[in-house]
Amino acid sequence: MSFFAEALTSRQEAAVARREGVGAPGEAVAAPREPGPVGQEAAVARREGVGAPGEAVAVQHEAGASPKESAGTLRDPAASRQEAIVSPSGGAVLSVHLSVDYRNKPGVLRDVEFDIRPGEAFGLVGASGSGKSTIALAILRLLEMRGGAAHGSILFEGRELLACREKEMRQLRGRKIALVPQSPASALNPALRLETHLREAWLAHSPRPWKEARSPVRDLLIRLELPADEGFFRRYPHQISVGQAQRVLIAMAVLHRPALLIADEPTSALDTVAQREILGLLRGLNREFAMAALYISHDLASVAALCQRVGVLRGGRLAECGPVETVMGADLSVGLISPGLSGLIHATEAR
Predict the structure, then answer these.
(1) Could you tell me if 8 and 53 are in contact, meaning their C-beta atoms sit under 8 angstroms apart?
(2) How far is C-alpha 172 from the chain's CA centre?
(3) Could you tell me which of 52, 24, 22, 25 has the C-alpha nearest to residue 40?
(4) CA-CA to 341 of 20 to 30 Å: which in 51, 126, 191, 250?
């Protein structure tokens, strides 16, 4: 189980126990009830004033909606009051110049530097243990919980994240930065129905009642090629396929139109067909919502299918960074992928 999902699950179960009045999280799993349980830790943080790593799984953002927009859209009226983005990094949504040390392992990352513009998908690739997920943790300001320390600068919409207090970070994670985690099986709470996950992800960061959002959420599910009937809403995570569960996580992540979507190995648990479908959905959402996307993977084939630019991590440094078609040609032989994927990558580049 990933760090993100492990933290989320433990907090979710504790919230279920508190709100359902049961003695232990295990009882909630045995007899799940609705609508009481908190489906996402972000909701726990909002209602109880606490913060923890699980917030990252349900992070959303309301982007530039008009107060006159009807309940038929997912944009929140409060979003119209957002301050204009003034970025000193040439219009980039995210600009990173980062070094990371762990207590017993200094120099995990050294002077890693990249930026992501609105509507751009930036791929971050490297072998296992190269520091890809460490960068995601640092952006979300969750690295400290792993005993890590980030140095340098992480500018998000002109704001220095490394200087933000935890209260400010909870608001940013909940409204403007979204995470699609690696394993849907561990990220979704088995005690909660799918509607509860979606409802709590919505209510955590919107003053509008769930009944107003329910219809546009149905439209979003259809957009993500999911059933949108009452029967699907009432299912539990174990009653749907892994591919459907990943789509639910994507729906939760884009409910409020994030400015930045971090996708951390989102297709690694899927079969080939499901991988292709998820990549297509991510590409479509990236273009439709003009989101900046950080796509983390060790699979260059998927990066070639989704991203415009890519950075390659080696030895704690960003060894190469540039357009996908340029970097791919230089990296097919460095051992990041299996030789069998080379033809697929070249075929993708040729399209």
Answers:
(1) yes
(2) 13
(3) 52
(4) 250
Please, how many CA atoms are within 13 Å of residue 23, restricted to the half-sphere of its CB? 0
Range of 288's domain?
55-86+116-143+162-350
> Within a domain: residue 11?
no
Of 181, 179, 107, 94, nearest to 150 by C-alpha is 107
pLDDT (average), residues 241-258: 92
Instruction: Provide the number of structural domains found in the chain.
Output: 1
d(CA 246, CA 252): 10
- For residue range 159-177, list pLDDT tens digits in order: 999 999 999 998 888 679 9
Interval 133-159: pLDDT, tens = 999 999 999 998 889 999 999 999 999
What is the spatial distance between Cα 317 and Cα 108, in angstroms, rounded to a whole number? Answer: 9
CATH code, domain carrying 258? 3.40.50.300
Please name the residues in contact with 254: beta carbons below 8 A apart, sequence gap of 6 or more: 60, 178, 220, 261, 285, 289, 291
pTM of the model: 0.70
Q: Cis ω on the peptide bond leading into residue 35 (within 30° of 0)?
A: yes
Residue 330 lies in a domain: yes
